[in-house]
Amino acid sequence: MQNRKLPIRKIVSYLNDSEAEGGGFWLPNIQRPFVWSEEQICRLFDSIMREYPISTLLVWKTREEVKHRKFIDNYHRDVKLTDYRVPDNSRSKMMVLDGQQRLQSLFIGLKGSYSGRELYFDVLSGGDMAAPEDIRFRFAFKDKGNAAWPWVRFKDIVFLNNKLDLQIAQELAKLAPDELTADEQTTMQINIGRVRKEFVNDDNITFQELDGIDNPDAYRVDDIVEIFIRANSGGTKLGKSDLLFSLLTSSWDEADGEIEALLEDLNEGGFDFDRDFVLKCCLTVLNKGARYEVEKFRDGETKEEIIAQWQVIAEAIKDVRDFLVSKTYIRTDKALPSYLALIPLIYFRYHHPEQFKATPGLADYLLRSLITGVFGGSPDNLIDKLVRNIQEQDGFVLNEVFGVIRADGRSLEITPEVIFNQYYGSRAIHLFFNLWYRDFNYSPALGANGPQVDHIFPQSLLKSVKDINPDSGKRNILRYRAEHRDQIANCMLLTADENGFNGKCAMSPSEWFAPSRFETAAAHEQYLDMHLIPKDSELWKLDNYEAFIEARKKLIQEKFSYMLRTAQGDHV
């Protein structure tokens, strides 16, 4: 193993280039997807400009025909890793084992784009000192048409050749709408010099090279997988699911493509299933226990079972996802506080596919456990206990399942207070609204057109109500604080159009619910019923806000009476 150094511009030019020194840099398929945000990328560039160290990379030089892919140049949220796969080959190549996020960020910033926007640099920033945690040198991803002076496309500075730093600064100064002051000229010249020094001239990238060409016995494929795990398990760079995936892909060439295809099917319509969830499902249905443990994959047996049973496992997961949509009216990630609640159902579907179709109570289990949050915290032991109960009962017996959950010290009780403690912005409020608005369209073609939670009495209207301050005698104390304004009894679900600029906005209930806004009396009546709005129009006035809330709480309680129990356990 040897340490090597290269300038940032040079190593970025080596990415995806088989003609470069060592065969270019590539990503082995054991690497997880790129996850950095725009802000993280900009902070990396700021760190480099501030001469902060960016850690050492780990690279494997090899001719092995290992599965690998290119770095992503033009990144977007829906990018598919399978589109970047490279055909197996026995040419020399440099596989990046540690440092993908940093190299990928540099590649996007210097060679590509992020969601169609390129990296720009404020050439007049950096003059003022900043705290270590703050941004000093300003970077941002911008559309070319929206990038006005002093923002300059960063790659133009880094890849400009045959010109002195002063000449580059002089050319950039011509782009300014007004003549630069002496201080601005000095700041820009210093910045250009620093960019060229940190990104072009200095050897700022250090990488450890594991030479599997000159020393193939020391760095075989199995050794590299183990090195990868050890290099990434000491900190927070990879989760355990990523480590397990690295072991799985070392013997299953199609792993990334198969899991990516499954996730694409699962997430259609607005869910957010991930690889972590899929691997936990695999471990659970194969009776390996829900907890992530690298040893489970090192024995080889678990990997072979997953490969052999993959299609059956995938079908079980997809079937439960379809059950979720069709039987509970949960249509979106916003209404699913815990994906882990699905795993016992997936286990049941995998081992008892015929029983799954006819067993009553599955929706009751799911709704009650989601609403009460029983899968919060560390639920692996609970999942294992539920699996054992399904094995013992040879099926999914609702009362037995609830008994296991309660015996684990978790409450399943849904009282009116559970609902009324929901508020604007809380995750579970979407779950209640999914159950509430059963005929609402939750599958628009464009995600931005999805339903949106809005205040019935607008925030601005409620904030206008002030009480007298006993200390000053002035009327300057808010009568309705956030907890009063944001409660579920003051929230409703609107379409994107209804909640848009030409929609409800800050319109009062008296205006929004006025009969004149509706084509017929029947349409007006139907709208009030759907949103559980008290029909006494006097309650729609600001002066009667508190009475409106109490009347609407009664309607909400009636709506959910089929699943509510009092604190004493009696049915409402």
If you had to describe this structure to a student in words, what would you say it looks like?
- Strands 1-12-3-7-2-4-6 form a seven-stranded mixed β-sheet.
- Mean pLDDT is 87; it is low at 234-238, 442-449 and 566-572.
- It contains 24 helices and 16 strands.
- Helix 8 (240-249) crosses helix 10 and helix 9 (255-266) runs parallel beside helix 12 (301-328).
- It is flat, with a radius of gyration of 29 Å.
- The protein has three domains: 2-206, no CATH class; 239-412, no CATH class; 420-559, no CATH class.
- The chain starts with a strand and ends in a 13-residue tail after the last helix.
- Helices cover 43% and strands 11% of the residues.
- It is of the alpha+beta class.
Features:
3 domains; 3-stranded antiparallel sheet; 572 residues; GmrSD_C; 7-stranded mixed sheet; DUF262 domain-containing protein; alpha+beta; 16 strands; GmrSD_N
